[in-house]
Known about the structure:
- By secondary structure, the protein is α/β, with parallel strands linked by helices.
- The chain has 2 domains: about 5-15 and about 90-215, 3-Layer(aba) Sandwich (Rossmann fold); about 20-85, DNA polymerase, domain 1.
- It is about 40% helix and about 10% strand.
- The chain has a 6-stranded parallel sheet with strand order 3-2-1-4-5-6.
- The model has no long low-confidence stretch (mean pLDDT about 95).
- Bound molecules: 6-O-phosphono-beta-D-glucopyranose and magnesium ion (MG).
- 6-O-phosphono-beta-D-glucopyranose binds near residues 45, 46, 52 and 77.
- Magnesium ion (MG) binds next to loops.
Amino acid sequence: MNIKACLFDLDGVVVDTARYHFIAWGKIASELGFNFPETENERLKGVSRMASLDILLEVGHINIDPSQKNLLAERKNNLYVSYINEMTPDEILPGVIQFLDELRSEGILIALGSASKNATAILDKIKLTEKFDAVIDGNKVSIAKPDPEVFLKGAAELGVRPESCLVFEDAQAGIDAARNAGMHIIGIGQPENLKNADFVIPGFQNFNFNELSALYFQ
Ligand code: BG6
Ligand code: MG
């Protein structure tokens, strides 16, 4: 088997921004008069901003018109941006930088494939932009995960066929997107939350090029 490129989701794989999304959505929920419990947060992972808002409103049993929805999504994003503006490279998850550096020295191409429209700003804040050969974010795709568009665009920008790409994802919507793209997949997190990945690992702390080779290059 021949892996020529690795595609990384951002939120939950490279950095733990899920808690910032959760705090921002929690504020919107309390302004609307209900509590958004942490147990529901898993459903927001990998899902676009407007789809996240729909889930939030469903949890709160709230019906509003599209223009109000746009205002709420904008307000949530302003809150979220105020948190990510404070991010530093210290927030990169353990082992990520070393793994990216190893991949580059082994000649494996690297892309980001994120649903977030804030992905470029986050990469800039954590000073990781230069580690990626291509960046596909929520501004470059028209159909959200689980549609494969984000990863297929990443593969095309790298000039690598989908079957030679490996995706790292922490959300079920992202794993489904990678599967729909015909790519190899490693889930990041707990196996019970991540169905249909080739393998699931807790993170990059104890995962390096040797482990990757043992899984895919023999
Ligand atoms: C994904 C997150 O990466 O980006 C989702 O996992 C989020 O929780 C989505 O809703 C969209 O992010 P943004 O920054 O465009 O609102
Ligand atoms: Mg994610």
